[in-house]
Amino acid sequence: MDTKDTYNTLEKPGDETLFKDRNSKFFGYAFPIASEEEAKHLLDGLKKQHHSARHWCYAWQIGTERTKHRVNDDGEPSNSAGQPIYGQIQSFDVTNVLVVVVRYFGGTKLGVGGLINAYKTSAQLALQNSVIVEKTINIDYVINFEYKDMNKVMRIIKEHNLKITKQELELSCKIYISVRKKITHKINEVFSPLYEIEIRKLDN
């Protein structure tokens, strides 16, 4: 059984970095992201900010236990930009992250080897200039119960230090909780004495 229930990501967007090679300028950026849509939105923002640049190459990775990623050379020779950027995401062992390198062409071709080095170095600088934090992998549950059981439910949540993410208190009550992966096996057990409540794992 895989007991690892932590992952590394960025606390906040990193500082802009600059790498130069033969008059070409490579601006590096690293962002924490939660979705592909967020990555697209951030890329659109950088394209507006650097509207006169030649290339906006990037790589992103999303997910904790199952990850998905994408790389984009944006007009540079195949595998000379996106893949070296993604290599740094793997090297720093981070996920839920987007790394973008914006290139202004300086008039001199760098060759594929030079490009690979420039994009790799720029991605490395962007991640070095970011604050990397460790987070726990959590599983979400919803608890359904009647008002009369509110105190009992809240007592269990407090005793086991469970994190409430949302509450819906209408005709009956729903409380959503987020539980660290390695203690999820206890969850049904701690709520089982309250036979009138229903607890259900949510599909993330």
Structural write-up:
InterPro entries: Impact, Impact_N, Impact_N_sf, Ribosomal_Su5_D2-typ_SF. Belongs to the IMPACT family. Pfam families: Impact_N. Residues 22-127 form the Impact N-terminal domain. It is a single chain. With 204 residues, this protein is α+β, with helices and mostly antiparallel strands. The protein folds into two domains: 6-134, Ribosomal Protein S5, domain 2 (2-Layer Sandwich), CATH 3.30.230.30; 137-201, 2-Layer Sandwich (Alpha-Beta Plaits). It is built from five helices and eleven strands. The strands form three sheets. Strands 2-3-6-4-5 form a five-stranded antiparallel sheet, sandwiched between helices. A hairpin with a 5-residue loop joins strand 4 and strand 5. Helix 2 (82-91) runs parallel beside helix 3. The longest helix is centred in the middle third of the chain and has 18 residues, at 111-128. The model has no long low-confidence stretch (mean pLDDT 93).
How are the secondary structure elements laid out?
Elements (H helix, E strand, L loop, with lengths): L5 E5 L6 E5 L2 E9 L3 H14 L5 E8 L5 E5 L9 H10 L5 E8 L6 H18 L3 E5 L1 E8 L4 H10 L3 E7 L3 E8 L6 H5 L6 E4 L3
Antiparallel strand pairs: 1-7, 2-3, 3-6, 4-5, 4-6, 8-10, 8-11, 9-10
Helix pairs in contact: 2-3
Structural descriptors:
4-stranded antiparallel beta sheet; 204 residues; elongated; Ribosomal Protein S5, domain 2; Alpha-Beta Plaits
